[in-house]
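Before drawing any conclusions, I needed to go through one protein's amino acid sequence and its backbone structure tokens, quoted below without any editing.
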Amino acid sequence: MNNQRGMTLISWVIVLGIIAFFATIALRLIPMYQEYFGVKNIMQGMETELRDNKLTKAQVNIMLLRRFNTGYIHSVKKENIIIERGKNNAFVTKIKIDYEVREPFIAQIDLIGHFISEIDVEPKGRLRSQ
């Protein structure tokens, strides 16, 4: 009696199809997350800039757009950037970036990534010691 051992051709095709499906998802998502980590790095640099310098909204906007340009960040547009001043301060203390990336996947199906990055350098109120 001959017993069949191993996978048949149909089994191999199914396994390769599943691997190809997940590889396609990974190839679409990896650039999206690489760009997000670039935004996070730029925001960390901006946090240092805001702590060390007193910058206006226009200065911060120009610095962010220049850094996005040199960092090849194309998904963040000017309307995705929220720049706020401190409560009792004329200078910028908070930056929030809220944006979405859509990547075509298969036919009319898109992969969507929604990313939010925020920094706030405004000193918090200190408790008085008695």
